[in-house]
Amino acid sequence: MHNILIIGGGAAGMMAAIFAARTGGNVTLLERNEKLGKKVYITGKGRCNVTNDCTLDEFMREVPRNPRFLYSALSYFGPQSMMELLEDGGCPVVVQRGRRVFPATEKASDVTRTLEKLMRESGVRIVYGARVKEIRTEDGAVTGVELLDGRVLDGDRVIIATGGLSCPLTGSTGDGYRMAEACGHTVTPRSAVLSAIETVETWPGELMGLSLRNVTLTMKKGKKTLYSELGEMLFTHFGVSGPLVLTASCHLPDHLADASVTLNLKPGLTREQLDARLQRDFDDNSRKMLRSVLPGLLPARLAELFPALCGVDGDKVCAQITREEREMIADKVQNLPLTLKKLAPIEEAIVTRGGVSVKEIDPSTMESKLVQGLYFAGEVIDVDAHTGGYNLQIAWATGALAGTCAAEEPLF
User: Fold this and answer.
1) What pLDDT digit, counting tens, does each position of 264-315 carry?
2) Residue in 273, 265, 271 with CA at minimum distance from that of residue 218
3) Residues 258, 221: contact at Cβ < 8 Å?
4) 183 & 233 share domain
5) Could you tell me if 67 and 60 are in contact, meaning their C-beta atoms sit under 8 angstroms apart?
6) pTM (2 decimals)?
7) Quick one: 328 and 356 in the same domain?
8) How far is residue 274's CA from residue 271's CA, in Å, rounded to a whole number?
């Protein structure tokens, strides 16, 4: 029987513990906080978007960063397996818009409570307030860990499931990267992803809190389209956020200045249809000022600012709007530019991009290619995905595979 030490009691760590114990391992889960799954509690705005009810091929298309590395893990424990595990554990789930899966109660605490119950039923020992100082190795194999308080725990298998750098108040402060590097692993540069973006333009700040639905955000680098999708976005005090922006952040070029972003506020209309709509609105309201007519086309707060964004006098009556000015308005409605300045701080991002290089991890087991008995699971690995339950499923899947393989691999 393997003595398995799991560092981190988040999504990946809890799943690794369940599967390692079920496979016959003697499992100890080391959690630095006073409770498990602190980041799980805040996912899906506290509702916990546990996974996405999609096929493997559909899932892979939602992973812009190292998708092929995840094939074995997702094949072993996919979204439907996660749904079944929760259901069998007494936590019913529901599938909502976008195939996003939530606990039926819409309480993240029920997910964590269920996983904790499954761990205890499987015989997992949970140690709270345990922060690991270093992983101990001898002759290229792990022998255990040393805690910050000086305690040494023996183990012939160690699973690092410490998360990334986002949401540090949940305990994700980058400890796993440091441990991996100390064991000889390469850690790729870390940055924010699924992140709000600050813009050079200040006008979005005047629209803080305004949400736009059914708009298209397109991001290009030169002539190459990096991302283009219909959905919902939100203006903030510093720029833009919301589902479209968060997903777009997964596709940013290395230098934000290389990205050009435009918004199509009326993607359901052709340019000809939009021009006809404007002509009709202006003819029907010929004596009214432009700024008082645009709310028929755009949200009121945006309509108030829009003439200035188009370079047209908002106090001008519609009968005096020239064809050129009408074309300028139509162009901005369907090609409103935004200049990206910088991502929100990594601490405020949903997910961390970068991490332990996938080139140094066996994708079929999650074991290190450099250190025998060392495994990785979850956000500490250099993989990330779009919003919609995909990142949590990556944590569940890599945790399940790492736990299983750590317990069943033969002793040498």
Assistant:
1) 999 999 999 999 999 999 999 999 999 999 999 999 999 999 999 999 999 9
2) 265
3) yes
4) no
5) yes
6) 0.89
7) no
8) 5
- The type of residue at 175 is D
Cβ–Cβ < 8 Å for 40, 82: no
The single residue listed with the structure tokens 């009556």 is 317
Task: Tell me 218's DSSP state.
Answer: E
- CATH code at position 265: 1.10.8.260
**Distance linking the first and last C-alpha atoms of the chain:** 12
pLDDT per position as a tens digit, 18-27: 999 999 999 9
Looking up tokens 């519609």 gives 318
Nearest alpha carbon to residue 70 among 330, 402, 344 = 402
Enclosing domain of residue 261: 196-343
List the structure tokens of 284: 């029907």
**H helix and E strand count, the chain:** 13, 20
Nearest to 18 by CA among 411, 406, 320, 412: 406
| CA-wise closest residue to 235 among 298, 297, 165, 191 | 298
Q: Which residues 6+ apart lie within 8 Å of 369 measured at CB?
A: 360, 361, 362
The number of distinct structural domains making up the chain is 2
Position 41 scores a pLDDT of: 84
**DSSP designation for 45:** G
Cα(290)–Cα(271) distance, rounded to whole angstroms? 20
Which structure tokens are listed for 337? 């530019």
